[in-house]
Design brief:
The complex is a heterodimer of chains A (about 110) and B (about 110). Chain A has about 110 residues and is mainly β. Chain A is about 0% helix and about 55% strand. In chain A, strands 2, 4, 5, 9, 10 and 11 form a 6-stranded mixed sheet that branches. Chain A has a 5-stranded antiparallel sheet with strand order 1-3-8-7-6, with no helix packed on it. In chain A, strand 7 and strand 8 (about 70-75) form a beta hairpin. The N and C termini of chain A lie far apart (about 35 Å). Chain B is mostly beta strands and about 110 residues long. Chain B has no helices and 11 strands. In chain B, strands 2, 4, 5, 6, 9, 10 and 11 form a 7-stranded mixed sheet that branches. A 4-stranded antiparallel sheet of chain B has the order 1-3-8-7, with no helix packed on it. The N and C termini of chain B lie far apart (about 35 Å). Classes of the chains: A mainly beta (about 110), B mainly beta (about 110). The interface between A and B is medium-sized, with 19 and 21 residues.
């Protein structure tokens, strides 16, 4: 079983739609969580950190449920430019960083 | 400011040859990470350094792989001898002490024939 698991998708949604991605992690010692975005043939880039209280950045909302070891990302009012692969990340206190395999999103006009 | 710099961007080599990948982290960052990305296995952490010292190399696949960081501004990942299954994109990333954001280089696309 992988330490960080994601639904690979792809998710195909129309512009303006709301889409949610889920991620589970198996290492209860994980302390920090993030969502990264990776465009085709590019490097991953940090999208947002994930806090227990939940956090929002514009159209993006991230949630963490430590009891269920579950992380989510919600994208509202999807744009064509949101098309990318979204990587869920768990980091231990020692900086060991585990990436999920990613969820592919295609936003259609 | 320059980001993380990797070279070469593309490398094509034949099985059995030695391959050396290079990385220059962002100045002032004291953590450096090497990752490998394939379609089958996704993005895997190979090794990371703190202040030039290897901290966790449990992701290094086998003895054919080695990594060094002789100073704060340079690291290498070496594969000797290379095999076709080593074909992947190799990313280097760096971060500061808080570690919240890892900044990735553009990657080296390695093809072993």
């Amino acid at each position: 079983r992988k330490e960080v698991e994601q639904d690979p998708g792809p998710f195909n949604v129309p512009e303006g739609a709301t889409v949610a991605f889920n991620c589970t992690y198996s290492n209860s010692a994980s302390q920090s969580f993030f969502w990264y975005r990776q465009d085709c043939r590019k490097e991953p880039k940090l999208l947002m950190s994930v806090y227990s209280s939940g956090n929002e950045d514009g159209r993006f909302t991230a949630q963490l449920n430590r009891a269920s070891q579950y992380i989510s990302l919600l994208i509202r009012d999807s744009k064509l430019s949101d098309s990318a692969t979204y990587l869920c990340v768990a980091k231990t206190g020692g900086f060991k960083t585990i990436f999920g395999a990613g969820t592919r999103l295609f936003v259609k006009a | 400011d320059a980001g993380v710099i990797q070279s070469p961007r593309h490398e094509v080599t034949e099985m059995g040859q030695e391959v050396t990948l290079r990385c220059k982290p962002i100045s002032g960052h004291d953590y450096l990470f090497w990752y490998r990305q394939t379609m089958m296995r996704g993005l895997e952490l190979l090794i990371y350094f703190n202040n030039n010292v290897p901290i966790d190399d449990s992701g290094m696949p086998e003895d054919r792989f080695s990594a060094k960081m002789p100073n704060a501004s340079f690291s290498t990942l070496k594969i000797q001898p290379s095999e076709p299954r080593d074909s992947a994109v190799y990313f280097c990333a760096s971060t500061g002490t808080s570690g919240d954001t890892q900044y990735f280089g553009p990657g080296t696309r390695l093809t072993v024939l």
